[in-house]
Design goal:
This protein is mainly β. The chain is built from three helices and nine strands, in the order E-E-E-H-E-E-E-H-E-E-H-E.
Length: 206
Amino acid sequence: MSPSSGTMGPVRARTGGGTIVGMDRDDRVETLSEAECLRLLDTVPLGRVVYTEHALPAVLPVAFRVAADGRLILALRTGTRVARALDGTVAAFQVDDFDPAGRCGWSVLVHGRAEVVRDAGERAALRSGGLRPWIPDPGPEYVAISPELVSGRRIPPVFPDATPTGTAPACTAPTGTTPPAAAPATAPRAGATVPRAGAALHPADM
């Protein structure tokens, strides 16, 4: 409660893992730390890369992996215009996981410089490690995004006893932490958070 305004402001919560850095009890949205965002990135195999194509914003779902050095490695089809459009630019990458039954979930957004992976040894290691685009032919081409800005949010279940229906950690807190109790609120809209405006998706590039 703010002494000057008498309104409820962001509530800072300390947890065992130190991952939840704030929560606005008015809208039930937790602000996640960078460490927690990076942990969640490693729990899903597919994300959305946001880039510019023909002076318009474009969004494409792509397979990816978090490298040991923290870079996001995107798997694209060889020779696609997406890799050319991303190379040497600042791009955004978004992942999420939502449980409609529990009305809860999380979303992570990363901004960073994207570059085509040109080192032959690294490309070979990525191929042998099994990172592939969803359409494997004619072969993979890899783009690395080096995170510079990382942000994320989590929405706890509307009801404390809500049971998640999915297998991914949409409604679960990190091991060793206790999720803050959810305050009564109008249920938020579940689903993807990235708008579909701009250039059309190109499934053949995935």
